[in-house]
Amino acid sequence: MSSSEYELTTDYSDLETDAFVFQFHSVDETLGPDQRWSTWLDVERGSRGPEPRPSWVVTEQAAIDTELGVLKTGKEADVFLVERAVEAIGDNPAKSSLLAAKRYRTEEHRTFHRSTAYVEGRRTRNSRDSRAMHKKTAHGRSVAAGQWAYAEWDALNRLWKAGVPVPYPVQVDGTELLMEFIDDGEGGAAPRLAQVRPSRELLGVYFEQLRDGMRELARAGLAHGDLSPYNVLAQADRIVMIDLPQVIDIVGNPKGMDFLLRDCHNMATWFTNRGLEIDEQELFADLLTMVF
């Protein structure tokens, strides 16, 4: 008889000695069309988020992932809202969290192809994978999509540990990256910086956070590489950088300085247009002191 046929939680004990007690908890194994069992334990330890993990991360084996809808349809990946939840079992309370599931497309399904300038200095470890990508076989296209997912995973891990304001990376599995869902405080997704009209005071708060984040990136020898008001989320008085698969090695990439300067230009222009005068060259020079 399968576990789904049991409906009661039952205590069994030796009534004379009370020496042996255990509990059996039923688990309904029926999943809906937009559900799956949590893949947390299916991935390698190195593909799970860095420790110490936030308390909201659901790691229980009995957890279920439920896809709630599309957050964003992009040129190279789509982002879905997923709830990972586990029911109360015995003394363990129910637990759930909302995640953003970013799923990279294979090359033939993309509407945007990143310039090779982004990946200069990177190498593919597996020679078979390199050959497959070069020949553009089905395996090679899948590997290429997975590489972008793992590139963003590595960047998020590194930057989260360094204190850069990025979503917490929960796990990566193939072409799917699960990360913290950044909400607006009312259940919806946080708006992009380009969509908000903050007060001058809040502009200053946002810029201080942005500069600190860019400094930590530069201290690690990195630039976002595609930083703009569209790749920064505004969550109340907090900003969060997103879309990091192309993170640039400032020194190792021949165009690293150009990418860093472009990041500075994009952000300085936005803040200046909103009424907070920011000199992109001063910002660029400040970040360079963190690199060298």
UniProtKB/TrEMBL annotation:
One MF annotation (Gene Ontology) recorded for this entry: ATP binding
Coiled-coil stretches: none
Keyword vocabulary terms for this entry: ATP-binding, Kinase, Magnesium, Metal-binding, Nucleotide-binding, Serine/threonine-protein kinase, Transferase
Stored Pfam families: RIO1
Catalytic class of the enzyme: transferase
InterPro entries for the chain: Kinase-like_dom_sf (IPR011009), RIO-type_Ser/Thr_kinase (IPR051272), RIO_dom (IPR018934), RIO_kinase (IPR000687)
Domain RIO kinase as annotated: residue spans: 20-289
rRNA-binding is among the record's keywords: no
Chemical reaction(s) catalysed: L-threonyl-[protein] + ATP = O-phospho-L-threonyl-[protein] + ADP + H(+); L-seryl-[protein] + ATP = O-phospho-L-seryl-[protein] + ADP + H(+)
Superkingdom assignment: Bacteria
Catalytic activity, EC: 2.7.11.1
Family membership noted in the UniProt record: Belongs to the protein kinase superfamily. RIO-type Ser/Thr kinase family.
UniProt-recorded name of the protein: non-specific serine/threonine protein kinase
Source species of the chain: Kribbella shirazensis
